[in-house]
Amino acid sequence: MKKGLGVLSLIIVCVFFYALIFQGNEKIEYRESDYRKLEVAQRKKYLLKDATIITMKNEADVFHGSILVSNGVITFIGQDEQITYPKDIEIIDCTGKYILPGLADMHVHANEIQAHQRFLAYGITLVRNMQGSNVHLDRRESIRKGKLLGPEMFVGTPLFDGPDPMWPRDAIVLTQVDQVLPTIQRVMDEGYDFIKIYNNLSRDVFDEMMRVAKEKEIMVAGHVPYKISAEYAAQNGLWSSEHLYGHGLEYNEADKLIDSIQKIVDTGMWICPTPMVHNLSSDQGYQQTNISMTKAFQYMKNFHDQGGNIVTGTDEYSQVILAGNSLHETMKTMEDAGFTPYEILETVTVNPVRMLGVQHRLGTIEINKDAELLILNNNPLDNIEYAADIFAVLTKGRYIDREWIENIREKKY
What we know:
Blueprint: H1 2-26, H2 32-36, E1 45-54, E2 62-70, E3 73-78, E4 89-93, E5 98-101, E6 103-108, H3 114-121, E7 124-129, H4 134-144, E8 152-161, E9 171-173, H5 180-189, E10 194-197, H6 203-216, E11 220-222, H7 230-235, E12 240-242, H8 258-267, E13 270-272, H9 293-305, E14 309-310, H10 325-336, H11 341-348, H12 350-356, E15 373-376, E16 390-395, E17 398-400, H13 402-410
Parallel strand pairs: 1-4, 1-5, 6-7, 7-8, 8-9, 8-10, 10-11, 11-12, 12-13, 13-14
Antiparallel strand pairs: 1-2, 2-3, 5-15, 15-16, 16-17
Helix pairs in contact: 3-13
């Protein structure tokens, strides 16, 4: 009898631990095939009727009107009575609503497949992936073709780093100048949109990389390497500096770096400060410096006030920085740091498309541009938090309603 009880107890314990393991994995086990067979773009015609339209062409260009969308493109903007309704149009009553261009998170990793739908559920229709792989390239193309629902992706290479890389499994290690040209040629042939550099590149390798990139018209973004300064990187053609590493904030207060900021601004280099990461610890995989979030925001404000190019990013990564809501948290904190709602919206709409060179089709609400649009319940120019109060999203010809948005937001990550 005792032996039987012992076996029964063992079975109960095993079942208990199996349940715990299964419950824990349930949060992170997603089959990519499930996402690929769902939510294919519908390519319908929509009339967004009687809204306040925030075009983002300039701060004053806000007016009441309607927008006609056909096959994912804006074909009319104006008063409703001017529209000749096409057949099979779906009318969306936007009375009391506000329409804004889709948002961009300009520093993400998007490793989990479910991140792509979470981005859309928070109005993010464009992302810049900062550490790419063949998986990201495949998803980028699937999204473009309507086989996978998610934001448009611009994908950077694996990390170009020097000796003793911080992330050895994800790095392409370059130790010699003569390695630069063939390595760049190989990764660009694979289809990446830009090069991502990292901490340990030597000055010689960085110089050669920038020479080759300029010659071949390739954009280079990433961490300012330890061996150089942000000023040096900017003056040698770095397209985008991430996290404010190397900008001098490790050693100085932001208000003492005005001359340095102006030298960087004059080169036209973009910064993507990801200010929220400066609250995270090394245990969470983040590079530790003496940069505080307060310093980062002060530097950003000075950079903006001196005419610098800024885009907003989060460094979205797995379950540490969640896709979607992290961008809105960053935007709210920017308002606390002194940015106006319109200035914040510029960093997530107009500025990203200028940076990526796609302003001819994205970033503002204009006829013949892609209808990547948010319908909001309240005016984000009054309070930037209203940018997260989304009634619906239009992306790639599909109308995503409030029910879908709430369902995705509530899902376990």
